């Protein structure tokens, strides 16, 4: 059996908060319970790390799993549900746009809204996917997050070397 011992530590080191799982979807936010300045970068780092891990798993185990990841940035309404076991939930336009960023995305890729693109563009590499229809919003321009920029040079995720497990 192929196992990957690496654990995503983003909640602790990036200040991200898992909201819930919905079927096979995993909802994470970057400004809860405390606002943070670089929430979009923290989410982008988690998304890139997740895609890197699935690529490494596929290479090592000769599999072909793929994740679609969607990111949108904006204001949302948050609430705490329950009196004994508290859980967060999020509602609002931001969630209603983030969801189709994932569901209308490309397997194995990270799709972001133009809002998120404008926040991340100085430090990350993108390709324009073009407009896609979003229910209740019409056509929205979206981008695919390809990797990080270092010293102005793009390092695409798909060009990264395979990581051996230690």
TrEMBL record:
Keywords: Lyase, Membrane, Nucleotide-binding, Transmembrane, Transmembrane helix. It comes from the Bacteria. The keyword Cytoplasm does not apply. Its main location: membrane. CDD domains: CHD. It is found in: Membrane. The lineage of its organism: Bacteria, Bacillati, Cyanobacteriota, Cyanophyceae, Oscillatoriophycideae. This is Guanylate cyclase domain-containing protein. Pfam families: Guanylate_cyc. The keyword Transmembrane helix applies. Residues 9-102 form the Guanylate cyclase domain.
